[in-house]
Design goal:
Layout (H helix, E strand, L loop, with lengths): L9 H11 L2 H8 L13 H4 E16 L11 E3 L1 H4 L23 E3 L5 E4 L8 E2 L8 E3 L8 E3 L8 E9 L5 E9 L8 E3 L8 E3 L9 E2 L8 E5 L1 E3 L9 E6 L7 H11 L6 E3 L7 H8 L4 H19 L3 E3 L3 E12 L5 E8 L4 E5 L2
Antiparallel strand pairs: 1-15, 1-17, 1-18, 2-13, 3-14, 4-13, 5-12, 6-11, 7-10, 8-9, 16-18, 18-19, 19-20
């Protein structure tokens, strides 16, 4: 007689999720203004509205000579931005997948971080400016002469005035008298006010910096290169996961597949040792329930297994595990709805939530 395996109950799943979920998210959804937030006060009974039951079929497979893993792409950054990147140095240690909170499985590797001289500017930090890197240019107001025409005398150096003179016949004539322009003392020119008489001003392009900051390195003369490295997960068996849920796992499908690998050694989930045994007759009594979606997932699993068997270089592994899958539909008092997914048995399961 088959023994029906035990699914974890909603309380256990909800508790496990509570411990795992970011506390600030829980507090945001459940906290009461003015009251001290206490995680123990959030109970499944109060917030789980519905439980969906299904199953997850899971097997692993070997992928022959992995499509020549191309060398990790080099990424570049400069000193002003490198501090905004979080690097990882795992040493020789491994990481427990379930404790890995980041979405990505590859991260910037600290050991790959290298400093190099910028080849765009030769490490100077600057590139050529129109001023031939002198930092100065000809004054445009005085065209480099340093002097400008005096406005008072229009460059003449002299001004003149008419003196009216009347003769014996009563006729009037004007006698012109000239004198030195008092604003330029007869020179006709004044020092240029833009360049203070030097004929030169700071280069408008580089503002006197004798070069333009290199766009490549931001003016520092160096840049950093690094590559992304894979997180060394503990149970990295080198095997790929094939996961077939009867209910949609959405974005968690891949992650949960990887986490299942960690609980395999202690799980008491249903193990199917022959792919042909993936039938309702065998699965239903062990699982304790069955439906059309489970049947569809079984069909997809069998099909994939057989395809992999026929594909040169790949080798699907037995057994196929059948885990109970429970999805808790939850709603907080504030009306926030979210789901908690649990795959596994009462003995060991993995869970994720969308809060
Ligand atoms: Zn540069
Ligand atoms: Zn003058
Ligand atoms: Zn000038
Ligand atoms: Zn310049």
């Amino acid at each position: 007689m088959p023994v029906t395996i035990k699914s974890p109950n909603a309380d256990e799943i909800f508790d496990a999720y509570k411990q795992k979920a970011p506390k600030k998210d829980l507090e945001k959804a459940y906290g009461v203004k003015g009251a001290v937030f206490n995680i123990d006060q959030i109970t499944a009974a109060e917030y789980v509205q519905n439980v969906q039951k299904g199953c997850v079929l899971y097997f692993q497979y070997k992928e022959g000579a992995k499509a020549s893993k191309e060398a990790a792409e080099e990424l570049y950054t400069d000193p002003s931005k490198v501090g905004g990147i979080t690097f990882y140095d795992f040493g020789t240690a491994n990481v427990q997948r379930s404790s890995w909170k980041k979405k990505d499985d590859t991260v910037p590797g600290y050991k790959t971080l290298k400093e190099a001289s910028c080849d765009k500017c030769g490490g100077n930090g600057y590139t050529a400016c129109d001023c031939k890197n002198t930092g100065i240019q000809k004054c445009s107001k005085c065209d480099g002469k340093g002097v400008m025409q005096c406005n008072t005398c229009k460059g003449e150096g002299t001004l003149s005035t008419d003196i009216p003179v009347i003769d014996a016949q009563g006729a009037k004539k004007n006698v012109s008298k000239s004198y030195n322009c008092p604003d330029c003392f007869g020179n006709g020119t004044r020092l240029c006010t833009d360049c203070d008489g030097t004929g030169k001003v700071l280069c408008s392009k580089c503002k006197g910096m004798k070069g333009l900051p290199c766009k490549e390195c931001g003016g520092t003369g160096i840049y950093y290169s690094y590559t992304m490295i894979p997180v060394p997960f503990k149970s990295a068996s080198g095997l790929e996961d094939a996961i077939f849920p009867s209910l949609k796992l959405g974005k968690f499908e891949k992650e949960m597949g990887k986490e299942l690998e960690e609980i395999l050694p202690q799980t008491d989930a249903i193990t199917v040792k022959k792919i042909e045994d993936l039938t309702q007759k065998i699965i239903e009594p062990n699982l304790g329930y069955f439906d059309g979606a489970i049947k569809t997932a079984m069909g997809a699993c069998q099909k994939q297994f057989k395809t992999l068997e026929k594909t040169p270089g790949t080798k699907p592994q037995l057994p196929v595990w059948v885990f109970p899958l429970l999805i808790l539909d939850c709603k907080t008092k504030k009306g926030t709805t979210f789901q908690v997914y649990a795959i596994g048995t009462e003995q060991s399961f993995v869970c994720k939530g969308t809060l």
